[in-house]
Design goal:
Blueprint lengths: L1 E3 L5 H12 L5 E4 L9 E3 L15 E5 L6 H17 L4 E7 L9 H12 L4 E7 L3 H7 L15 E2 L4 H13 L7 E5 L5 E2 H8 L8 H9 L7 H13 L9 H6 L6 H11 L4
Parallel strand pairs: 1-2, 1-4, 2-3, 4-5, 5-6, 6-8
Antiparallel strand pairs: 7-9
Bound molecules: NADP nicotinamide-adenine-dinucleotide phosphate.
NADP nicotinamide-adenine-dinucleotide phosphate binds next to helix 1.
Length: 272
């Protein structure tokens, strides 16, 4: 049996739906199992008892990354320990692109990768690039211009649907991807200037300091400003622009163009 965690979230729901489409009858592991009827399985990594993975052979572990490192590490540890306890054969983990080591949320991903590699479980690590949807949201126009502090940096953004499609392919045939780590990006890198041009507005990059000051008064959770600032900083610093061919090979087709995805996401952010 297959189980996908985070099944109510953006990525997990797409993975779950893709596996359903393939007729693989996956379980939906989520904190809100009721919406999935008989396929729902209550999974809350914050429960110290750990999730019940009885009968699960392949676990798609979607990172539960919104939190401080100690919280996220504890969540992922409970998930992997439960997989070990319940005889899961293979874990597919949605991690972070290798180039993302400068990002504030990288540590939890690398810790989880190491925890898996040192386990006796079969595993595949999907190092997901940053979502094109996220780039669009972060670079959405403010006052008629794109003002985000991305400098001239490029981001090898990727459509969430492509990442889900890749996870579905791996989860459907885990033996073929045993012990493999994939770097998953789109095939072109996006810039804020390029996005602004698509949107027909000017790009007026602001400084990191101005953005940090704005975020500090935005009512975010304590860990969020550092996460967001690291995305701007690492992109502007040129660390996230490299594209890889793993996604095209896994999908056996070119990845979606991330630009229209980013444009659509930017359009969904209310004008400010
Ligand atoms: N590559 C990127 O650009 C990027 C951007 C943002 C986030 N991420 C990472 O990728 C993950 C998936 O992204 P997404 O867009 O699908 O995010 P999302 O829509 O916020 O979904 C995250 C899911 O994590 C699950 N989760 C959170 N806390 C949990 C807990 N205590 N126990 C069990 N599950 C828990 C939830 O699943 P249920 O609601 O089903 O319980 C939630 O829906 C995120 O959690 C984050 O780690 C990546």
């Amino acid at each position: 049996m297959l189980l996908v965690t985070g099944a109510s979230g953006h990525l997990g729901s797409l993975i779950h739906a893709g596996l359903v489409e393939r007729g693989l009858a996956p379980l939906a592991g989520t904190r809100t199992p009721g919406r999935f009827g008989d396929a729902g399985r209550g999974v809350d990594f914050d429960d110290p008892a750990g999730p019940d993975l009885a009968g699960v052979r392949v676990l798609v572990l979607v990172s539960a990354g919104y939190g401080e490192d100690d919280v996220v590490l504890a969540r992922h540890d409970r998930a992997i320990a439960a997989a070990e306890r319940h005889g899961v054969r293979h874990v597919v983990y949605t991690s972070l692109i290798g180039a993302g080591d400068h990002l504030a949320f990288a540590l939890a991903h690398r810790w989880t990768e190491r925890r898996l590699r040192e386990s006796r479980l079969g595993w595949t690590i999907l190092r997901n690039g940053l979502y094109a949807e996220l780039f669009g949201q972060l670079a959405a126009p403010v006052g008629g211009a794109v003002t985000a502090p991305f400098g001239a940096g490029a981001l090898a953004a990727v459509a969430r649907q492509d990442l889900a499609d890749a996870a579905v392919r791996v989860a459907a045939d885990p033996a073929a991807h045993h012990g493999r780590t994939y770097e998953l990006t789109g095939s072109v890198a996006l810039t804020a200037a390029g996005l602004a041009a698509e949107l027909g507005v000017p790009y007026r990059p602001e400084s990191l300091g101005v953005r940090r000051a704005a975020l500090s008064g935005a009512g975010l959770l304590p860990f969020q400003p550092a996460m967001l600032m690291s995305i701007y900083s690492a992109t502007a610093g040129g660390f996230l622009g490299r594209t890889h061919g793993d996604l095209a090979r896994l999908l056996a087709r070119p990845p979606r163009d991330p630009m229209p995805v980013a444009v659509a996401a930017a359009g969904q952010v209310p004008p400010r």
